[in-house]
Write a structure and sequence with these properties.
Length: about 160
């Protein structure tokens, strides 16, 4: 049930039919008793939100790998004003918040932490190992982000 619920939520996060394909593959490998439970849950549910953030599963996979393995990551980034820049970062953590995937990273060229929306990332490429010293900036990342990277008191 948890897998079906998660994949239904992911339908609006991932571009294409990645969630549907994952459900079909799960159904093929499960024992008959569990396959019936999965198939019933899938048939009896849908994501009615209708919005899609359009994150390419391949992009998400590259960024998750870079964050998990402490790799330097290069990509093109389109900001909220439609300006496109090249970025070179050390990925710290991928986050899902407010209907979007983000990557928290240390921007090597700006020498500062940045948060990038994954649906604005193009052509990501993980490269050499990072410095190894780009840890989580705070235990509670939600609070840290809500306080403008820890620069302001919580509201």
């Amino acid at each position: 049930m948890a897998l079906v619920a998660t994949l239904r939520m992911a339908e609006r996060i991932l571009a294409g039919d990645a969630s549907q394909r994952a459900l079909a593959k799960l159904s093929q490998v499960l024992p008959q008793r569990l396959r019936t439970v999965l198939d019933d849950a899938a048939a009896g549910s849908e994501n009615a939100d209708g919005r899609g953030a359009g994150v390419d599963p391949a992009t998400l996979a590259v960024l998750l790998r870079a964050a998990g393995q402490d790799l330097v990551l290069g990509f093109r980034y389109r900001d909220q004003h439609e300006a496109v820049t090249r970025r070179r970062v050390e990925a710290v953590r991928c986050l899902y918040a407010r209907g979007h995937w983000y990557v928290l990273a240390y921007d090597l060229d700006a020498a500062d932490r940045r948060v990038f929306r994954l649906d604005r990332v193009r052509e990501p490429a993980a490269g050499q190992p990072g410095s190894g010293d780009r840890r989580r900036p705070a235990e509670d990342l939600a609070a840290w982000l809500a306080t403008d990277f820890g620069r302001h008191a919580p509201s």
